[in-house]
Amino acid sequence: MSGAGDGGVRAGVDIGGTGIRMVVLEDRREIAAVTLPTSSFERFERQHRSLALAHSLRALVPSDKTLLSVGIGASGPVDTVAGVIENPCTLPTFSDMPLVAELSAHLLVPVRIDNDAVTAALGEFHLGAGRASRRMLAVTLGTGVGVALLIDGQPLRTADGAHPEGGHIPVGHTDTPCYCGLSGCWETLASRTWLQAALAGLLPDIAYEQHDLDFYRDLCQRDSRIAQLFERYGYQVGRGLGSLMSLYGPDLTVLSGSAAQLFPLYEDAVQVSLRRSKGFELSTRIVVSALGDGAGAIGAALLS
């Protein structure tokens, strides 16, 4: 089999509830990438979806390169041993099917899968904002909230080898139950989904995803309601971060996901919520992802 330096490349796939990001890496350098709507695969019968995904990957690999392996990051729960996504609540398109085995059979290469929080963390640790961290907490604020802790580059696992779902911890009171079974779940209060819905309630004519940090910063300066909303969001994000920082003691926290790009608008509120008395201080060094939306797919490519 060809090595990466002999025209061999590795592919990474980040499967989210909204979009699927695919990248091709050669010697840890991105040479091709594409993002497809997750819903675009729903037009295929369930038994044909892995084949459609394989075709999309093949089309992305340059004709003069040899595909060596594929890594997948997916919003969990994920059974990494069986190679099955077990998340029908937010990722029904590819859940409860032998995705790893089928994709490997279609592409004739090894395929590995992990939680998308882990793959995003790995991407940042090796090639992004987390380099040189010995104990890195990674939090993705997207459709849901993904959490991973890397200790010297290795993900923390539960006793049975599973990924701990750190996005599903109780942080407050709400009448909206999470699909995990909790009310007041961090994911329902700190995800980009919450922020987007809250902004839509105040700005029904503005599409969240079509505007950047400068746009929302200007809105905050002109409309106190928007500034207060971001302050509330920051407090909700900080509530969960404080619990995780207390338990895990990271030397660095990396925020990723679309809501992380707006971090300057709610950073002060996050830091206020993390304040502790003397002797109980937290390591509150927080940075935004250097790889952006590509972190999960890049980290997935590095799984093998």
TrEMBL record:
Gene3D superfamilies: 3.30.420.40. InterPro entries: ATPase_NBD, ROK. The keyword Thylakoid does not apply. GO terms for molecular function: kinase activity. The keyword Kinase applies. Keywords: Kinase, Transferase. Belongs to the ROK (NagC/XylR) family. This is Glucokinase.
